[in-house]
Amino acid sequence: MRLAGQVLELLLGHALMALGIATSTASDLGTTPVSSLPLVGSLISGLSLGATTILVNVTLLALQALILRRDFRPVQLLQLICLVWFGPFIDAAVWSLDRLGVGYTAYWQQWALTLAGIVLVGVGVAFQVHARLLVLPGDGFSQALTFALQRRFGPSPRFEFGRVKVLADTGQVLISLVLALVFLGGFVGVREGTLAAAFGVGWVVTWVMRVLPPTQAR
Known about the structure:
Elements (H helix, E strand, L loop, with lengths): L1 H25 L9 H10 L3 H20 L10 H22 L6 H25 L5 H17 L7 H24 L7 H20 L7
Helix pairs in contact: 1-4, 1-5, 2-3, 2-7, 3-4, 3-6, 5-8, 6-7, 7-8
């Protein structure tokens, strides 16, 4: 039963993340940081958002191996399993919102969609981490950075997962900005909503992790 609960929590987390990504994308204020690179890559390549999400996450898994080096374990390659359903989850969420006619007619509505996306992604990430089963390579990358920083500088609130994720997300946004400027001629897919999410998602994760029951109690 414990494993079944973990699997359900993981799938729920990924479903919420996918819905949050689709919701923020629908705002046209820029998607969340975890999908800024996939979205820009999708606009450049013509591939679906789900497909480019898979490609970017495979790259982030490779970066984990470079950061952890000897501490990288073959079991971490299981993160790739998550991509089997996460990419399709995103494409399904984008399709569903489009079919439902989710959109906006005013700027404040764009921000409402953006904030909803931030909350959904943040809660989804927290559930994924709390399940202690598998994480997406993007969040595994943040965990690898957290481990490396705590190993180097010691345990500190500055290096808890939620805060490190803010830094990792911000870095992805900056790379997305450069790619958008070079290949698309402007801040396409990366706007003020993306910058808000770069900080907001990490704080939502930190808050939700604090209210979820301790994993030791499982």
